[in-house]
Amino acid sequence: MASDPSNPGNVLASAVDAEVQKFRRMQEELQELQGDLQTLTAQETENDMVRQELAIMTDSSIVYKMIGPVLIKQELDEAQQTVDKRLEFIRDEKEKTKRKFTKKQDRQQELAVKIQNMQKRLQATTAQAMQAIAAEHAQK
Questions:
Q1: Which of 6, 40, 63, 94 is least enclosed by beta carbons within 10 angstroms?
Q2: How far apart are CA 8 and CA 126, in angstroms?
Q3: Residues 6+ apart with CB under 8 A from 62
Q4: CA-to-CA distance for 65 and 81, rounded, in angstroms?
């Protein structure tokens, strides 16, 4: 009887459960995006510090670039350009991730409101069913 598909309460309860599952998946996705943002922020900070260090060097300074286990000499301006491009890329990725995070947060908020409304309808349907059962028993 609890799984009767013709029972409006069961149909609504199943729909609420499905929406709650969507909400939980969105929460997991938001947590993942938050982790991505933290990683990008750390990379941005690290590369910004490298850029600052390169800015105080003189043209006679020697810069080395690590490729695997090997250090290779690199021109200062080439190193600065590489770091600047890397920072630009990281900042672009960070902005994209922030936009995705905000959109997902907005959709999650909309879903939360939808779930609340569905739960209210489910409670009202349950109350009506209880009243109908009480009235039926009172007539007996």
A1: 6
A2: 9
A3: 73
A4: 13
Q: What's the residue count for the chain?
A: 140
Q: How far apart are CA 10 and CA 12, in angstroms?
A: 5
Which pLDDT score is estimated for 6?
63
Separation between Cα atoms, residue 101 and residue 31, nearest integer Å: 9
Range 2-20 average pLDDT: 77
Contact present, 44 and 87 (Cβ < 8 Å) = yes
Q: How much is the pTM?
A: 0.76
Q: Is the pLDDT of residue 2 over 70?
A: no
Give the separation between CA 12 and CA 6, rounded to whole angstroms.
Answer: 11
Beta-bridged to residue 67, according to DSSP, are 70
Q: Is residue 102 within a helix (H) or strand (E), and if so which, with residue range?
A: helix 76-139
C-alpha 100/C-alpha 92 separation (Å) is 12
Please state the rounded mean pLDDT for residues 104-117.
95
